[in-house]
């Protein structure tokens, strides 16, 4: 600060009086930005650059890796692991849709109908976060256990026949099937859907509902023409907050799935930590990042949320 | 429920509230209320905040379900109909324009919901009526408060409702714009001939715009009438104080002769015409004699002899005077009332009329009105001061 506030040596006697306060004001925003920028540089920008360089290295663990601009790693990784990519997108998209279908009515209820129960329901939505992600996912292992009450009930209702026909489950098992992984993803990311939805629904002036009703809109039309369009910012951020982490997730597939449900996150994890093929792991990470970025860009453009906020 | 009288006497488009009331738990927002709004009239519900006027309006709109009673629009009992099935439209206090739709679509909303396909002509005409043709493709937040208000009116009027309900529609506008919009709304009402029910806390607004005003207080209608009738013949102290300013003298009935009631107050005598007393006068009974400040003349005590016979008089001393251009407002301390307000037009100003001067207040007895003495003299006063500010 001291260097900033010092006036330049000028012969004019008025200059030192006028300049200091203005200069201090000009630098304040940058100073306030500094901690955040430092954090981003150290924990985001540098690792990204490091990973980028890793992805174009060749060599082995014993001899060490060197940057050889070997871009073929990208192509090799993609051609070998594309099924896991496709699966990641499919599972994450399914979980996102399920989260939206489950979360929207709940968020609507909390925002408009819960009255004095609002805070209690909010706490219940957030409560799972008090337990670790891992333990919550392991709990689903018990819930969906073979011969357990849930599987038994689904079997008795012949739901499993349908899901098995669709390829979501196998035989009379739910565990170790795509359905189990999607269920786990849905459960784990549901609060990330509900919270932004609630925030945007809660901001809607209830008088707009009254106005729509007053202008001959049935409750269902009011929802379609007023409430839902106005909640689009919440829908977009909720789906992004669910889809992005879900597509990179590996815990759910690891604990609830099988080798047939491996997602790209599982591949990256094993490449990094078990096979120790760092270039392939880094390349996969970059492909995933690029894919998500592309999907998100298209999605935001299509949903036209810039207009709404 | 329906009596023969109701079905035969109902006007084509009158709004009739019969025994309508609304309670929230222990709190009664609207006491059982009967009200008829004649078709084509500009009707104002006037009262301070929390008096039940907005609740009454919302019950007509169907946004609030009455605890008891019925709402009729013409011959149709709409009490059980949801808002989207009622042929009424509302201009909301905050306008409640749809922020995601442009002005054109806001105005077209009601038509589209009723399945009307070609809305272009009607929407454009309506936007012309409210002088917003240029703004059709703007979003509500891009318009000024006055323009938003006009969109809200257009959005409601385009549906040709039987009744247009206006809930404090001018409350958010500044004074100058409010005056302008009052005239504008009055013009539109005359032009389209639709019944307007206008809720306001602004007595001046109600008097300027409405053909008929219902003054509400604590969930009840205090008095109903034309603005002039309410002003000249208030039947309660609340109405007398809420609409304009009134001076009250606590008096005792001395004697009655023909159409006149002679009152005794602070040693003097006042005359009240029987027709203007809202309570029966019995000799020895108490009565509140009221008079509006602008009806009173002020004469310096030295000239008391020049006051014609037959006028009500009171003596006092000026405590305050404030010059406000067209008139001078005096506060006079008199034995019958410690702060008598007098507005004197600035035609020939008497320089002796200054604080401390002994004066005689006198007025035509016909301007005295008599009210039931068993009520709060100051009812409705605080609210008036709040509104003036």
Automatic annotation (TrEMBL), chain A:
<keyword id="KW-1133">Transmembrane helix</keyword>
<feature type="transmembrane region" description="Helical">
    <location>
        <begin position="175"/>
        <end position="198"/>
    </location>
</feature>
<keyword id="KW-0812">Transmembrane</keyword>
<keyword id="KW-0472">Membrane</keyword>
<dbReference type="InterPro" id="IPR000515">
    <property type="entry name" value="MetI-like"/>
</dbReference>
<feature type="transmembrane region" description="Helical">
    <location>
        <begin position="119"/>
        <end position="139"/>
    </location>
</feature>
<dbReference type="InterPro" id="IPR035906">
    <property type="entry name" value="MetI-like_sf"/>
</dbReference>
<protein>
    <submittedName>
        <fullName>ABC transporter permease</fullName>
    </submittedName>
</protein>
<keyword id="KW-1003">Cell membrane</keyword>
<dbReference type="GO" id="GO:0005886">
    <property type="term" value="C:plasma membrane"/>
</dbReference>
<dbReference type="GO" id="GO:0055085">
    <property type="term" value="P:transmembrane transport"/>
</dbReference>
<feature type="transmembrane region" description="Helical">
    <location>
        <begin position="89"/>
        <end position="112"/>
    </location>
</feature>
<feature type="transmembrane region" description="Helical">
    <location>
        <begin position="226"/>
        <end position="246"/>
    </location>
</feature>
<feature type="domain" description="ABC transmembrane type-1">
    <location>
        <begin position="85"/>
        <end position="299"/>
    </location>
</feature>
<feature type="transmembrane region" description="Helical">
    <location>
        <begin position="281"/>
        <end position="300"/>
    </location>
</feature>
<comment type="similarity">
    <text>Belongs to the binding-protein-dependent transport system permease family. CysTW subfamily.</text>
</comment>
<feature type="region of interest" description="Disordered">
    <location>
        <begin position="1"/>
        <end position="23"/>
    </location>
</feature>
<keyword id="KW-0813">Transport</keyword>
<dbReference type="Pfam" id="PF00528">
    <property type="entry name" value="BPD_transp_1"/>
</dbReference>
<feature type="transmembrane region" description="Helical">
    <location>
        <begin position="27"/>
        <end position="50"/>
    </location>
</feature>
């Amino acid at each position: 600060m001291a260097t900033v506030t010092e006036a330049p040596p000028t012969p004019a006697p008025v200059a030192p009086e006028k300049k200091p306060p203005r200069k201090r004001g000009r630098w304040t925003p940058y100073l306030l930005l500094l901690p955040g920028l430092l954090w981003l540089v150290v924990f985001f920008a540098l690792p990204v650059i490091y990973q980028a360089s890793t992805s174009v290295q060749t060599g082995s663990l014993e001899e060490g890796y060197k940057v050889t601009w070997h871009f073929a790693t990208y192509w090799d990784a993609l051609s070998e692991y594309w099924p896991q990519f496709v699966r990641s997108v499919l599972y994450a998209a399914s979980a996102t849709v399920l989260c939206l279908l489950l979360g929207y009515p709940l968020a609507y209820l909390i925002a408009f109908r819960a009255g004095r129960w609002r805070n209690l329901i909010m706490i219940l939505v957030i409560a799972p976060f008090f337990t670790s992600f891992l333990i919550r996912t392991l709990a689903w292992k018990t819930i969906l256990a073979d011969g357990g009450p849930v599987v038994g009930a689904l079997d008795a209702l012949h739901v499993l026949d349908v899901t098995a026909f669709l390829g979501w489950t196998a035989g009379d098992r739910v565990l170790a099937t795509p359905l189990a992984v999607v269920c786990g993803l849905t459960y784990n990311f549901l609060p990330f859907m509900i919270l932004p939805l609630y925030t945007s629904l809660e901001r809607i002036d209830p008088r707009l509902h009254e106005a729509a009703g007053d202008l001959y809109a049935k409750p269902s039309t009011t929802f379609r023409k007023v409430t839902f369009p106005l909640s689009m910012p919440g829908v977009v951020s909720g789906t992004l907050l669910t889809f992005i982490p879900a597509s990179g997730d590996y815990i759910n597939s690891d604990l609830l799935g099988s080798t047939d449900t491996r997602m790209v996150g599982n591949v990256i994890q094993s490449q990094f930590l078990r096979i120790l093929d760092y270039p392939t792991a880094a390349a996969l990470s970059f492909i995933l990042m690029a894919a998500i970025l592309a999907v998100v860009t298209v999605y935001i453009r299509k949903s036209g949320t810039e207009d709404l906020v | 429920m329906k009596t023969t009288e109701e079905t035969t006497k109902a006007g084509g488009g009158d709004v009739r509230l019969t025994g309508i009331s609304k309670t929230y738990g222990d709190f009664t927002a609207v006491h059982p209320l009967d009200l008829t709004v004649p078709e084509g009239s500009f009707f104002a519900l006037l009262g301070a905040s929390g008096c039940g006027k907005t609740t009454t309006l919302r019950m007509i709109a169907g946004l609030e379900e009455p605890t008891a009673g019925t709402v009729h629009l013409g011959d149709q009992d709409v009490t059980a109909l949801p808002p989207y099935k009622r042929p009424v439209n509302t201009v909301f206090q905050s306008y409640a324009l749809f922020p995601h739709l442009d002005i054109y679509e806001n105005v077209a909303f009601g038509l589209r919901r009723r399945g009307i396909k070609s809305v272009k002509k009607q929407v454009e005409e309506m936007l012309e009526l409210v002088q917003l043709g240029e703004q059709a493709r703007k979003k509500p937040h891009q318009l000024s408060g006055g323009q938003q208000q006009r969109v809200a009116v257009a959005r409601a009027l385009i549906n040709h409702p039987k009744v247009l309900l206006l809930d404090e529609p001018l409350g958010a506008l500044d004074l100058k714009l409010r005056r302008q919009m009052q005239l504008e709304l009055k013009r539109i009402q005359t032009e389209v001939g639709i019944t307007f029910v206008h809720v306001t806390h602004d007595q001046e607004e109600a008097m300027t715009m409405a053909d008929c005003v219902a003054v509400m207080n604590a969930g009840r209608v205090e008095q109903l009438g034309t603005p002039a009738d309410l002003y000249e013949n208030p039947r309660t102290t609340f109405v007398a104080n809420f609409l304009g300013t009134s001076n009250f003298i606590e008096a005792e009935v001395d004697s009655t002769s023909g159409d006149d009631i002679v009152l005794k107050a602070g040693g003097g005598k006042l005359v009240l015409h029987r027709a203007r007393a809202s309570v029966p006068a019995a000799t020895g009974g108490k009565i509140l004699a009221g008079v509006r400040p602008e009806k009173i003349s002020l004469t310096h005590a030295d000239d008391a002899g020049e006051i014609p016979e037959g006028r009500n008089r009171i003596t006092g001393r000026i405590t305050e005077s404030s010059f406000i251009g067209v008139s001078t407002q005096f506060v006079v301390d008199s034995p019958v009332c410690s702060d008598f307000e007098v507005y004197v037009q600035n035609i020939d100003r008497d320089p002796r009329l200054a604080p401390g001067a002994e004066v005689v207040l006198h007025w035509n007895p016909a301007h005295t009105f008599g009210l039931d003495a068993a009520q709060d003299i100051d009812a409705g006063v605080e609210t008036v001061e709040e509104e003036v500010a």
